[in-house]
Amino acid sequence: xxxxxxxxxxxxxxxxxxxxxxxxxxxxxxxxxxxxxxxxxxxxxxxxxxxxxxxxxxxxxxxxxxxxxxxxxxxxxxxxxxxxxxxxxxxxxxxxxxxxxxxxxxxxxxxxxxxxxxxxxxxxxxxxxxxxxxxxxxxxxxxxxxxxxxxxxxxxxxxxxxxxxxxxxxxxxxxxxxxxxxxxxxxxxxxxxxxxxxxxxxxxxxxxxxxxxxxxxxxxxxxxxxxxxxxxxxxxxxxxxxxxxxxxxxxxxxxxxxxxxxxxxxxxxxxxxxxxxxxxxxxxxxxxxxxxxxxxxxxxxxxxxxxxxxxxxxxxxxxxxxxxxxxxxxxxxxxxxxxxxxxxxxxxxxxxxxxxxxxxxxxxxxxxxxxxxxxxxxxxxxxxxxxxxxxxxxxxxxxxxxxxxxxxxxxxxxxxxxxxxxxxxxxxxxxxxxxxxxxxxxxxxxxxxxxxxxxxxxxxxxxxxxxxxxxxxxxxxxxxxxxxxxxxxxxxxxxxxxxxxxxxxxxxxxxxxxxxxxxxxxxxxxxxxxxxxxxxxxxxxxxxxxxxxxxxxxxxxxxxxxxxxxxxxxxxxxxxxxxxxxxxxxxxxxxxxxxxxxxxxxxxxxxxxxxxxxxxxxxxxxxxxxxxxxxxxxxxxxxxxxxxxxxxxxxxxxxxxxxxxxxxxxxxxxxxxxxxxxxxxxxxxxxxxxxxxxxxxxxxxxxxxxxxxxxxxxxxxxxxxxxxxxxxxxxx
Amino acid sequence: xxxxxxxxxxxxxxxxxxxxxxxxxxxxxxxxxxxxxxxxxxxxxxxxxxxxxxxxxxxxxxxxxxxxxxxxxxxxxxxxxxxxxxxxxxxxxxxxxxxxxxxxxxxxxxxxxxxxxxxxxxxxxxxxxxxxxxxxxxxxxxxxxxxxxxxxxxxxxxxxxxxxxxxxxxxxxxxxxxxxxxxxxxxxxxxxxxxxxxxxxxxxxxxxxxxxxxxxxxxxxxxxxxxxxxxxxxxxxxxxxxxxxxxxxxxxxxxxxxxxxxxxxxxxxxxxxx
Lengths: 732, 274
Description:
The complex is a heterodimer of chains A (732) and B (274).
Chain A: E1 13-22, E2 33-36, E3 42-44, E4 50-57, E5 62-66, E6 73-76, E7 85-91, H1 108-111, E8 114-117, H2 119-123, H3 133-137, E9 143-144, E10 154-155, E11 163-167, E12 170-171, E13 176-177, E14 182-183, E15 190-196, E16 210-216, E17 225-231, E18 235-242, E19 249-257, H4 261-268, E20 276-287, E21 291-304, E22 313-329, E23 333-349, E24 359-375, E25 381-389, E26 392-398, E27 404-410, E28 413-422, E29 428-437, H5 438-446, E30 455-462, E31 468-479, E32 481-483, E33 497-499, E34 507-521, E35 524-541, E36 553-571, E37 575-590, E38 593-595, E39 603-614, E40 617-626, E41 630-631, E42 634-640, E43 657-662, E44 668-669, E45 673-685, E46 690-698, E47 706-709, E48 716-718, E49 723-731
Parallel strand pairs in A: 1-7, 11-16
Antiparallel strand pairs in A: 1-4, 2-3, 2-5, 5-6, 8-15, 9-10, 11-12, 13-14, 15-16, 17-18, 17-49, 18-19, 19-20, 20-21, 21-22, 22-23, 23-24, 24-25, 24-26, 25-28, 26-27, 28-29, 29-30, 30-31, 31-34, 32-33, 34-35, 35-36, 36-37, 37-38, 37-39, 39-40, 40-45, 41-44, 42-43, 45-46, 46-49, 47-48
Chain B: E1 6-14, E2 20-27, E3 42-48, E4 54-59, E5 61-67, E6 70-77, E7 86-92, E8 99-104, H1 114-122, E9 134-135, E10 143-155, E11 161-169, E12 178-181, E13 187-188, H2 191-205, E14 214-222, H3 224-233, E15 257-272
Parallel strand pairs in B: 1-15
Antiparallel strand pairs in B: 1-2, 2-6, 3-4, 3-7, 5-6, 7-8, 9-13, 10-11, 10-12, 10-14, 14-15
């Protein structure tokens, strides 16, 4: 939430707080703008739709509320004595209000490296699964995937386990569904998402590289509604409506599973025996525009059972529940809290597979969260938060030599943070934050190995004009978990997250970001960011461990730097264009060898565009070009002697099996990736229902993009050929 | 990646053996031709025996021989390999980087006290219960890998030679060698397992002709290099792994190629039953 102060300090001033809501559904609108009519000051509502205007002069005052996708509306302000004025600003939905939206200010963190993703933006996404939120993220500058359809992503040279994912504040350990075809958070339940590629502030921690903070919808407070999608990959249904019929409460219930995956697989020979179930339920009660409390449950389960006994089975699930809320207290404080519990379970059953071992990963995470934001009379903000988590880990990991790590660990992880934002709307502003893992701080003070100082986070911003923002960011980050999977595997259905041994110390990263953003008008924006990221004490499993006396873990370092450039033009009513180019260079050093990890994509260009040809008929296109991924070349072949323990000397008289000898790690590169994807959608509005039909073609030009080179046979395995998907959405 | 010439070298040096075999081949550009041995290389053996006594250098002879009917090419020298010693093999060949690798030869065991051997000979089907059997591999520097078998060997009723093995060490049948730490020597052998193996061997002997019938107690020790090579070469590579440097262990370093120079000791006690 942002706050602006009136310049007319001599007049009687009041504080206006409240929420901005959709007039039809009653749902609060994240990041809506509220201004005082006739003045240049106002505020941006927070992610929950609450706003606070302090020191507003009362003199026939009106406020105006507007938001992307909504029609702006003015509201008269009635005095309430000396008490804060509470307003519930209801504005109607309208798809053609983009040009009328004014920018009065964004938070610093929004400016530096963060992208706000709304359902409207998801509609512009062209992916194999309609509107998938992770597929959208993978097209942002600085975000890399290692296949055209994967929902596992890498951010600015960070590993796959360095990305923090939160759904309504609940930590999610694996978003991927169906071998990465889609994520388990369905776009229908997404209200808004914030994605930060780096430089995130002190309210986030526990991961080194990125934050993906997803907020789910609250539901319709006024009417019962139902909607759903029939899709070859996923079929879903959602019902929502008022909980108590008083206009202040709502519920949402959602279920999704694939119904036609067998047809899809037979048609395309995908060889992906995916199957999954997703569920989501939430109840929300609002309190007079001053706060809300909600209870929710989110579940997801994947079951990949392969017919061949030589192929492994994979089973994994996420279950999360939370009670959370946010309240405006008085005329100064915004209080947020949640109590949540989430579990993650993943199991790899190798069956008779010769190259995989058994894996089990179970994590349970009870957590308590509270955050108080204070809005000072001068317009500054002070934030003080705490997050207490009590994760329990139970994991088993077996490497290819049969060496097994089996642990059960329970931790207490108390984290606190504070930050001060100075002059958030001014030409010069800065944000100073610090985040402490109290346990590590205590270790440092007591001289126990593994301790460290709290992480500093700094952001500076300077606006030489209304159109241009310059900003710089520095941050230090720690992470106490690792992925037991080999990050050089071309495909992993799920991560095996485990705590780094306490005595080894946490992974750490320091990052610098320099950026410039130009917004000549509300439709157009361009941004350039340069970054440098240093990574120390990176933990990995010793996959080459053979003997009991060898270490289970190895530790290395990394470095990444690059530039992200993006351009966006969005006239919501009929045209949008979004492009992003990234250059990056990433290295890892383990066991004295420095190499380019397989996600070191040097050049990446994403471009997407959409055009409304005639009313309700949209055509959309997405182009993705990347330079090739690193891989280890074959240096030659040699004959392998098979020693028989019962007859060792017999090695002298046996025929030899040919075995590839590999060269230096990742010193070759695959051919570049290129894919052009198209979709067309048509909205049909009838008196009793709304339907939309969408057809999608992935890799229209049927480019043969290399997925990987088989390690054993040397055969080239390609990514998806041209793939067609059809979906039909309905609502009433 | 352009192919660069590298060598592929194998040799297992057996303690107390009186011969050294070194196989030299090249890493080839294609998978065909990997069985082609390389002739004309300079192969040298240098060793350090007990009390730092020097062995060699010995130049091995390029030879081709028929072994079990198969034509094989080895570099050979009739050198006595001393248990507990360290040996280095170097290979030089024009156009290839030189190979140098070292192996430590396990010491061999000192075991089966005479009185137990005697009791076994006197009453093979009623071994005394006070056997205190140890396998002493204390000559190893870091770790040792040991297996111990009791084998019954003889002629069956149709006159064919037959062998039946009964496992004493290790207990885990999935791994043919037991890993020993440097501090765990001498290894105390599970007497019950030893007795049981011997009984089984003796019972099996009942089905064989009572002629030239014997039981062998075989203790095999291999060094770290051979064990790692064995376990890595017997595991399938993951086809989905992109980082694929050395899947199979090699102790040939300095980018000269790949292969293994290893040490092993095989000690056998033969007890004739008839």
